[in-house]
Please model this.
Amino acid sequence: MDTVMNLTAYGENASAALDAAEETLRTLDAKLDRHDETSTVSALNRDGTVEDAELAQLTDIAQTIGALSGGAFDPTVAPVMDAWDFTGDAPRVPSDEELSALLAHVGLEKLSVDGNTIALSDGAQLDLGGIAKGYAGDAVRTVLAEFGVTSAVIDLGGDVGLLGAKPDGSDWRVAVKDPAAPSKFLGVLTAADTFVVTSGIYERGFEENGVHHHIIDPKTGKPAESGLVSVTVVCGDGAWADALSTACFVLGEAGSLALRDTLAAEKNLRIELILVTDDGHVRYTAGLAERFEPSEEGTYVYEAIIA
Ligand code: ADP
Ligand code: MG
Model:
């Protein structure tokens, strides 16, 4: 998944549990990596259809979040990602003509899931880069729990899954990175048994007449400019946390808060958010008031969102 992963587990079976978790991660990576020709996602992108129960389940979640976010999260954005080549050897800014031609192959309606079968139409390609790490976090949490582990930190390149609390029973402390200076942090979140996932402009980008980051607004085919430079989602489910961080980044503050309300009303899913705006504000939902401790060295203005 093109990142560094660190797993820490406590207790009697920790060592065996971590071996099994590593195996799970390698298997998932081999299935979901669209840049690996032998992956299941590559087979789908080549043949237009594939049968796989797990991939169907994950694609279905991606599609659901796509629809709930009004298309801000769109797992068919692959051709546009490829044109920008953010992580490749020759990143570049595609022309407007090129992007609008590519956008003809992008859209949630070009992706369908029927039972265990996934299908693509209109030359669409599946890219699970915005949800795969979070889903992998869910899978690792399940494996660790099966081994009897009740206390673990699953750090998948900045997407952090917390299994239970610390061995002494107290909550974990998770540092949230400062998007302007990733060696610093915005603050510390005190949490247990949840996922803390951040999407920010510092993650993977390149510079050419300005900095271009790798979260695409599917409406324009260009890096999203929503007024946000970082979004942290706190949510009990890893796949949802990951995809929602990407969706909220595209939606901006008002859209993110509206999506949060929709999730509570329609999916009975409660999430908390830490939003960093491009004018130096850190705005966090009121549910984090007791759990988010702003960094003292920061230059940001911190505000709880009372909504
Ligand atoms: P990171 O990979 O840095 O943790 P994200 O979780 O936000 O960041 O995922 C970004 C990845 O998601 C991109 O590399 C790309 O594969 C994919 N992606 C980019 N824009 C979108 C989008 N609007 N909807 C769904 N996936 C996207
Ligand atoms: Mg994401």
